[in-house]
Amino acid sequence: MKRIEYFTRCAGEPAPLEKSVRRVVRFNEVDPMNIMWHGHYASFFEDARIALGDAYGIGYQDFYRHGFIIPVRRMQIDYLSPLQFGREYEIKARLFYTEAARLDYDFTVLDETGSVHARGCTVQLILDKEQNLLLAKPAFFEAFCQKWRGGKL
């Protein structure tokens, strides 16, 4: 199956940053048909997004400590096949480099055999604590992006 690409990479941009989390489908996550309820996928994306942000020092709390919030502006989920109770699965998050003051993530949900069950993306904007939209990256995040561009992550 062809990979869904949510973001276009420009020549010279650094490779996306990646992080994965593993889980098992719990009983309370399935519907009467014994398949994962579709509404849970948003929280799976959140789990992977938090793991990636925390691994690189650009998580929710890092932005907040610097005086910024990063709400989700866009979310898309493409369901390909259902997960069932007891199945192990992995959520892979990738953060794409952008010159804009935002965070572009894509996600892949796959089972222990490597079969892809869902894909999706989120876009998070960067706001100050008064909820004003930033047009430029905050200094701490721009410094992070410079390291990323320079291959120092």
Spell out the key features of this protein.
single chain, 153 residues, alpha+beta, Thiol Ester Dehydrase, Chain A, 3 helices, 7 strands
Strand order of the largest sheet: 1-4-5-6-3
**What's the helix count?**
3
The average pLDDT value, as a whole number, equals 95
Number of beta-strand segments: 7
What helical percentage do the residues reach?
10-25%
Identify the CATH homologous superfamily.
Answer: Hotdog Thioesterase
Q: Structural class per helix/strand content?
A: alpha+beta
- CATH fold call: Thiol Ester Dehydrase, Chain A
Question: Please, how many domains?
Answer: 1
CATH architecture grouping: Roll
**Biggest sheet character:** 5 strands, antiparallel
In what range is the share of β-strand residues?
A: 25-35%
Q: Compute the CA-based radius of gyration.
A: 16 Å
Identify the overall geometry: globular
CATH class: Alpha Beta
How would the blueprint of this fold be written?
Blueprint lengths: L16 E8 L16 H16 L3 H6 L2 E2 L2 E8 L8 E9 L5 E10 L4 E10 L1 E2 L10 H11 L4
Antiparallel strand pairs: 1-4, 2-7, 3-6, 4-5, 5-6
